[in-house]
Write a structure and sequence with these properties.
single chain; alpha+beta; 2,3-Dihydroxybiphenyl 1,2-Dioxygenase, domain 1; four-stranded mixed sheet; 2 helices; 32% strand; globular; VOC family protein; VOC_core; Glyas_Fos-R_dOase_dom
């Protein structure tokens, strides 16, 4: 594809332009304003015989054992598998949030990316909120029906990552 041409000029693989605005949250009631996105040329994995199979979160913590224990106790994640060094310290691990595997590193922490938000889909956000609030021992904002669809609440872990629990999906603007 020629540089600068729109993806839609030649095939169906198009992505929003990085500078395009897809909406905004404003004011106390978080009203949503949607605007059209401009499609631009982008690589299409299908054109190269490839398929995107998914995304795997990978988080770095200075103390992986403490982070894994917190995720199990507070968030209800399960099945942690730990790889330990000779001193017994976890240097690599996997833990599950439902069917999603999350990689956890015990080192190599950087200040970049600490503003990440992870969305965890649950079937009963109010019940999960009660479990998380009780296990964390912290006051949390109660779940809220968002103007864009889901009912949500968010907790920030002791290391600065945000975990947002969603019941339902975002609905496209009309």
């Amino acid at each position: 594809m020629t540089k600068g041409r729109r993806a839609s000029d030649t095939h169906d693989c198009h992505w929003p332009h990085p500078s395009a605005t897809h909406g905004s949250l404003e004011g106390e009631h978080q009203s949503v304003r949607a605007e059209p996105l401009e499609a631009v040329s982008a690589p299409c994995p299908e054109e190269h015989g490839m398929a995107i199979e998914g995304v795997s979160p990978y988080l770095r913590y200075q103390d992986a054992d403490a982070a894994l224990e917190w995720m199990e106790r507070v968030l209800g994640f399960t099945d942690a598998v730990r790889w330990r060094d000779d001193s017994g310290r976890t240097f690599e691990a996997d833990i599950h949030a439902g069917a999603t595997k999350i990689g956890v590193s015990g080192g190599g922490v950087s200040d970049e990316g600490r503003n990440a938000l992870f969305i965890v889909h649950v079937d009963d956000v109010d019940a999960h909120f009660e479990l998380v609030r009780g296990a964390s021992g912290r006051e949390l904002d109660a779940p809220v029906d968002q103007p864009y669809g889901p009912r949500t609440f968010t907790i920030t872990d002791p290391w600065g990552y945000q975990w947002s629990f969603w019941q339902g999906e975002a609905t496209p603007p009309r």
